Amino acid sequence: MQTQSTPLRWSGEVGPHTDPSGIHQVLDDLERPCFVVRTPSGVGAAAGGRATAGEGLPLLAAAGPLPPHSLGSPAFRAAHGVRQAYMAGAMAGGIASPGLVVALARAGFLASYGAAGLLPETIGKALTRFAQEIPGLPFAVNLIHSPSEERLEREAVELFLRHGVRCVEASAFMNLSAHVVRYRLTGLRREPSGAVVTDHRLIAKVSRPETAERFMRPAPAALVSALLDQGLITAEQAELGKHVPMADDITVEGDSGGHTDRRPLTALLPVILRLRDTVQHEHRYPVPIRVGAAGGLGCPSSVAAAFALGAAYVVTGSVNQSCVESGASKATKALLADAGIADCEMAPAADMFEMGVELQVLKKGTLFPMRARRLYELYQAYDGLEALPAAERARLETQIMRRPLEDVWQECVGYFRRRDPEQLARAADSPKRRMALVFRWYLGMASRWSTVGDPDRVLDYQVWCGPAMGAFNDWVTASYLKAPGNRRVAEVAHHLMRGAAFHTRLAQLRVAGVRFPASAADYRPVPLEAPALEGAR
């Protein structure tokens, strides 16, 4: 509020500050109210205490307490058992590692394990670790849509059901699959009161309204019927599925790393929010679907903007990849810590190569985007490896693959015999398909070289990354978080959320007409003491 004609009598612990450092201290005291007054020395700010009308300093504006846990949806926090409306999204191949998930769970945040692309035994070990190290604490596991490797999606869901996974983050879906529907519906039951309980929570990451709507509505009848006929769900679960949406939460993904449509979050989020309201009006769900925001959230002001747009929660990705606990190699973390907002580019995706789907990767320090695009151009131009001109084949073998193509194919044969023999059966009579598998070998290995930090293949590193990484690096310049060795996921989450609350309070005061010096209005991370992290739990 703005009451310039009202005098303020101040009775508190700290009098009004007029110097920038003092004003910053008041603004950062988020647990207490903030009063802005006009003093003989200029605009001043005071925190806490009690303000009463009477003879004193003119009151310009006031803002109530705004601790970070007040941002976003209380329903999100309650549903997932977390302290703050913040989530670390999955990064495939275990880059969102078990250690990352454990660290954030212990600090009161939700994190999604990057199970996509991993073998079932590896995922199983991670789930066992979660049961041992964070029993009762929240976590999610990623289920990525695998249209070209259906078996992997099916086995992942079966694994989740055996281990009693209660929350799954579904990503890269264009249409619903029987497997994601099975996971959702097998968690349905009815309480004695008659209420439908969804024991299997689903968070769907989407970037298109049509995909969002599929997750907002009940499971498709045809898929439900097929699952019932196969005995994979009960008749009661099939019936209950008519009354609940496929997802509890919809994460709207803007310009992000990995799979992305690169749509601006400010344009996409309002569209999905209106769609949610339309579907809610139609179905009258007892618990409305929550809509969160992801993509481009690399600094506190961006996080604050997402909440201001109406996000129930926020999801970070790229910034966590450079943290100590991520599964990325030290070499990759060093590349990420040096990235700017323009150092990303689109490249073909390994899992949807034949479909021409692209993902966003780091281009600074690696030739992967250029080489991956060349492979897709060759795939489009020729019917098989045998049709490649001799000069093109030689360039592939010497510059990109760095081994004979036939050796690569034999490695593919060994790999898919263990992982998914159906891939080999489909390629048996299709030179084009065989070429795709060989080219996908490079795309897949490029991710592995980056993860393990292979020093001989640095120029081929595939590093999923969006512009949020550059924004984060710019924000932490001259702070202790500039060095990758100091970047711990719980501290990054703490500072992003606390900084978002700081900037939200600042925006409230600006609306009231108050302007502060730039140095007073900039939230910068400082090292945390143990009690500060405890307070975030």
Describe the protein's architecture and organization.
The protein has 537 residues and is α/β, with parallel strands linked by helices. Helix content is 43%, strand content 15%. It has 21 helices and 18 strands. The chain has helices spanning 20-28, 74-80, 98-106, 120-133, 150-163, 178-185, 209-216, 221-229, 235-240, 265-283, 300-308, 318-321, 330-337, 368-381, 390-400, 405-419, 421-427, 431-452, 468-475, 489-511, 530-535; strands at residues 7-11, 34-39, 42-47, 50-53, 57-63, 86-88, 110-113, 140-144, 167-171, 188-190, 196-198, 201-206, 249-253, 258-259, 290-294, 314-316, 344-348, 358-362. It has an 8-stranded parallel beta barrel with strand order 6-7-8-9-12-13-15-16, surrounded by 6 helices. Strands 3-2-5-1-4 form a 5-stranded antiparallel beta sheet. Strand 7, helix 4 (120-133) and strand 8 (140-144) form a beta-alpha-beta unit. The protein is globular. It starts with 6 loop residues before the first strand and ends with a helix. Mean pLDDT is 92; it is low at 1-5.
Topology diagram in text:
Elements: E1 7-11, H1 20-28, E2 34-39, E3 42-47, E4 50-53, E5 57-63, H2 74-80, E6 86-88, H3 98-106, E7 110-113, H4 120-133, E8 140-144, H5 150-163, E9 167-171, H6 178-185, E10 188-190, E11 196-198, E12 201-206, H7 209-216, H8 221-229, H9 235-240, E13 249-253, E14 258-259, H10 265-283, E15 290-294, H11 300-308, E16 314-316, H12 318-321, H13 330-337, E17 344-348, E18 358-362, H14 368-381, H15 390-400, H16 405-419, H17 421-427, H18 431-452, H19 468-475, H20 489-511, H21 530-535
Parallel strand pairs: 6-7, 6-16, 7-8, 8-9, 9-12, 12-13, 13-15, 15-16
Antiparallel strand pairs: 1-4, 1-5, 2-3, 2-5, 10-11, 14-18, 17-18
Helix pairs in contact: 4-5, 5-6, 7-10, 11-20, 14-18, 16-17, 16-18
